[in-house]
Amino acid sequence: MKKPLKIILGLIIAGSLGLNIYLVKEKELFRQDEESFKVVEVFDGDSFSIPPDQTIRLANIDASELEFCYGKEAKEGLGKLILGKNVKIEKTGKDVFNRLIALVYLDDQLINETIIKNGWAKYVSGGSDNSDLANLLKEKSQEAKENKIGVWSEKCYQLENPIDPACNIKGNLGKHEHGEKKTYHYPGCSEYERTVVELDIGEQWFCSEEEAIEAGFTKSEHCFKNYQKP
Question: Whole-angstrom Cα distance, residue 134 to residue 131?
């Protein structure tokens, strides 16, 4: 009986030691006044990695997916700022993918703010407990929107289709209790004129109702007249 007991005690001690090492590393990682971390890869406009294999997600930031409008430009912009450089990281939490959410600094430059000011991404709430910084980022996002910069420019943020005006059906994405809601609007729908197509989040233009339906969109409840092709 002594041998199994020794084995069990050994496993408990080893597990405890491993946990302590993990907690020490976690603590040391975020003593930002003492250390900075080299950025080894940039994934897109709002996330990157540091050694050994830790992904960091910028707090209060939502950049486009690479296949959407301004996604590649956002990744390139973030890469020019921080790739291969040492940054300081202020952890604010973790997301559902176990990525660390953080405020990131390059010297005295808050990278989160720079991303938003350049219109490479949009502000989202809930990323930081620092209300002053969150308000600052929100304010900078509003300024970028007013000045039509980046994702807020007519390249991505459209009331009319600049490429093919005849394809004037607006496919929009929204939140629903069961997930994402996909609706389309056409001229004559009561909400059409003020409905924006945000290409940076995957919204799109359609040339016909059939095309919109085939893509998984349903007619808006605000559409009372039949669609008339231009």
Answer: 5
**Domains in the chain: how many in total?**
2
Range(s) of the domain holding residue 165? 157-219
Residue 166 main-chain phi, psi, to 5 deg: -70, -25
Contacts of 78 (CB under 8 A, 6+ apart): 42, 44, 45, 46, 48, 63, 111, 115, 120
* Helix, coil or strand: residue 66: coil
Enumerate residues 6+ apart whose C-beta is below 8 A from 161.
Answer: 167, 168, 197, 205
For the segment 95-113, what is each residue's pLDDT rounded down to a tens digit? 888 899 999 999 999 999 9
State the pTM of this model: 0.80
Q: Distance (Å, rounded) from C-alpha 77 to C-alpha 144?
A: 16
- Torsion sign over Cα 133, 201, 101, 105: negative
Phi-psi region of 107 (alpha: psi -120 to 50; beta: other; left: phi over 0): left
